[in-house]
Write a structure and sequence with these properties.
Elements (H helix, E strand, L loop, with lengths): L1 E8 L8 E5 L2 H11 L5 E7 L2 H12 L3 E8 L6 E6 L8 E4 L15 H5 L3 E5 H6 L1 H16 L3 E5 L10 H13 L3 E2 L3 H8 L4 H11 L3 E5 L5 E5 L2 E5 L13 H14 L4 H15 L12 H10 L4
Parallel strand pairs: 1-5, 3-4, 7-8, 8-9, 9-10
Antiparallel strand pairs: 1-2, 5-6, 10-11, 11-12
Helix pairs in contact: 1-9, 7-8, 9-10
């Protein structure tokens, strides 16, 4: 989606000046992985409008292969407004994505031959919540990847307002998690989706469903990691001033996924995830704090993250 960030604090209805950027959980992860030097492709739709053109130009600038991002001539590109908060609280967000081009993705948009050349697929629960056709697409892509022995990561990234009922949301999220190798819920998300109260209980639930690795985001407390080889809590990174909380979870996913693809341990992957998530918190835009390789190394060395 296109993103308009308020330049001053206050109610969105009273803000006159906004700066334009880009948004979208999957796009944030794609940007972060590309900046770290991984080859990244993206599947989506944008409208035949200025917002869509801006997004395509942005993907090109970030080195993302968008050969499977279709231009939808009938539906517009979605956008969102985000407030500016001065106290580190979550910003207020208003979405304008009903009937958007991306919400009209369907199984016909699945580039099966293209995906077969990849080694990893990343999905979030936001896409599955947009419409039944998108849900069908991401489910098909996940099943296809697992059958072809390509790894799959899944971040529930819950958006309850997009679902007809909590029961439907829980069933769909857990179905997608069962198709994934790596599941990345927040603690509150995991509690809602599994009925378990503790990070260990949540991890055990998803390991029993077929995931090989579970990383639970604990906010400032870091992350809880679990696999068949054991479990551990990985301490978080202290942030003295939070500028914007949006995108930090996506930055965390970037760190974990990139580290695992580089052959690092799950513990080391969570350390990198904590570091990138903490860095993102200190920047205003969803993608602004996502580092390149040199910036990541410098940040982790400064924070004494081994």
């Amino acid at each position: 989606m296109a993103l308009f960030m308020a330049k001053q604090a206050g109610a969105l209805s009273q803000v006159h000046d906004f700066s334009r950027a880009t948004a979208g959980a999957e796009l944030n992860v794609a940007v972060g992985l590309s900046r770290l030097g991984l080859r990244v492709g993206y599947v989506s739709r944008v409208g035949a409008d200025s917002f869509g053109e801006h997004l395509l130009d942005f993907m090109d600038a970030q080195g993302i292969d968008r050969s499977h991002v279709r231009i939808d001539l009938e539906h517009p590109t979605g956008f969102m407004l985000k407030s500016r908060e001065l106290d580190g609280c979550d910003p207020r967000i208003e979405y304008f994505r009903s009937n958007s081009a991306a919400s009209h993705l369907c199984a016909a948009d699945n580039p099966t031959a293209y995906c077969a050349t990849s080694r990893h697929l990343h999905l979030t629960g936001i896409s599955a919540a947009l419409a039944s056709g998108v849900n069908e697409l991401v489910t098909e892509m996940a099943i296809q990847a697992r059958l072809e022995k390509r790894s799959v990561s899944f971040d529930p990234n819950l958006r309850p307002r997009l679902w007809a009922s909590q029961k439907e949301m829980v069933a769909c999220m857990n179905r997608l998690a069962a198709c994934s190798d790596l599941v990345l819920p927040g603690l509150a998300e995991g509690q809602l989706l599994t009925g378990e109260k503790t990070a260990q209980g949540i991890a055990d639930f998803y390991l029993a469903q077929g995931a090989s690795q579970v990383v639970i985001k604990l906010g400032a407390d870091g992350a809880y990691v679990a696999s068949q080889d054991g479990c551990a809590t990985v301490p978080g990174v202290t942030v003295s001033k939070i500028v914007d909380t949006v995108g930090a979870g996506d930055g965390f996913a970037v760190g974990v996924i990139s580290a695992l693809l580089e052959g690092m341990s799950l513990h080391e992957a969570a350390q990198r995830g904590n570091a990138i998530g903490a860095r993102v918190l200190q920047f205003p835009g969803d993608c602004d704090g996502l580092p390149d390789r040199a910036q990541m190394t410098e940040f982790m060395e400064r924070e004494k993250i081994l």
